[in-house]
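We now fix the convention by which a protein and its fold are recorded. Think of the row as the fold of the chain written in a discrete alphabet. Here is one such record, which you should read through line by line.
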Amino acid sequence: MTETTIFPARRIVTMDPSQPVVEAVAVREGRILAAGSLDECKSWGPHEIDDQFRDHVLTPGMIEAHAHSLEGAFALLPYVGWFDRHRLDGIAEGIRTYDALIDRLSRLDREMRDAGAGSLDPLVVAGFDPIYFRSEDRLTADHLDRASTERPIFVFHASAHLATVNTAMLRAHDITRDSTTVGVARDQHGEPNGELQEVPAMVLASSAMHRILRAMNDPASIDALGQICANQGVTLLTDLASAGLQRPESEEFWHSVVDRDDYPARILQRHVAAIPPGATGWAEAADAVLDLRRTDTAKLRTAGIKVILDGSIQGFTAKMDWPGYYTGTDHGVWMTAPEQLVEMCRPFHERGINIHTHCNGTLTIDLWIDAVEQLVLEHPWLDHRHTTQHCQLTSPAQYRRMAKLGICANIFTNHIWYWGDEHHDFTVGPERARRMEACRTAERTGVSFSIHSDASVTPLGQLHTMWCAVNRVTPSGRVLGPDERISAQSALHSVTIGGAYQLHLDAEFGSIECGKAADFTVLEDDPLEVDPLAIKDIGVWGTVIAGRPFAATVR
């Protein structure tokens, strides 16, 4: 008979409404055989008992439905963000002044020279966000030239929507006043000032972007991504920038890493909408997604596609409706032409391919809802679960329309902590900031939702996204929109069964019940029982994937 393993625990939170808490779970063939009392689990026949979690709390495996493989590459790049950040080897200290940034870049330049790197090899760092440096002028090439006038420097912003480069980088890639690419920021004389806004401008600095792409496709970064998942209690991560349509050959490489028995996470790939090489239209792209699904495995699957409509609010590149931004300069960018959205999405919708769309500004949310309405009228699919990603400034009226159309929301709750004060004081103003990341309104209007980190934009970790949704506290101590707070139960639902639902995977993941995958998050305490302000500080032992434990390396 196939071997059965029983895991007793101090408390097992199932997210199964018929039995919310049990004392043991039995696992056979990587699936949940039974959940209930210890005696009930034993009644299934011969077994062995694994007591290692007897003093821990198990929840369903936490699902991150919007992150990026860049989180793994980010772990391999030098960090220059504002907040201290967990890394695989401990804590990286944040950068709080331009002087500290220049000092770190100068030190990294010296280390590259000492290691034999040529002067033209680019220095690429990540995590910077200019919005925190309110007392400073906007970071430009002039600032970075203090670190080096010879080595090209590329400072990747936390949002992944912008970068700042030095004069050597501009010179190396012939980025001049004659450059016509949208997003090359200029000084008062019309010369490039070093800021590159959005992907079309950033790819002009090709040596740096190639460095980032190499890191993203390095087995070490994919291994790092898996271990970060285990460290943060995430069993299933959806990469919303997968490149299978642009580079189909990359899939074999991803399978070679993720399909290993010892890889500590499941990865879903949501491919960026693109017409594959050799194809001539969106119908062929949709067929290519169906082809990618034929190679799906238990560890690596194709989830659907992602459409990007605009930029970021904190970067002033999101498309805002009236009255626009509170302060600052509106650099709103349409990343997809509005008039082409329905035409682009139609073949995917008709083939039953789920679509998730990046919507930060208010204009993009309306555009996306209108598009889904037209698609459903043309081709009824009552269980599409198309999703508004980020969903940051969604109004009650928009949520009501989403509920009627069956549109899900994936809400970027970490913004409340990382940019809440900036949104209140600087980007959108007090009133709109209070309704940002409106989980309670989504819940009240009947919209199925999950919450996310958008790692590497903010650090991976669903305990932190839950903490933000439950408390809505900013670094200044402000409670930003107290009436939009949700319960810990709702927050846990959003990172388990809620995430599984919008991925069309709720029959397989998201709760601890017979027949589902034996994926668990192993915690030191119960997020439903601790003080709500302590949720983010709960220790993570690690995870269980298909019945196999994977311990965290940093706790």
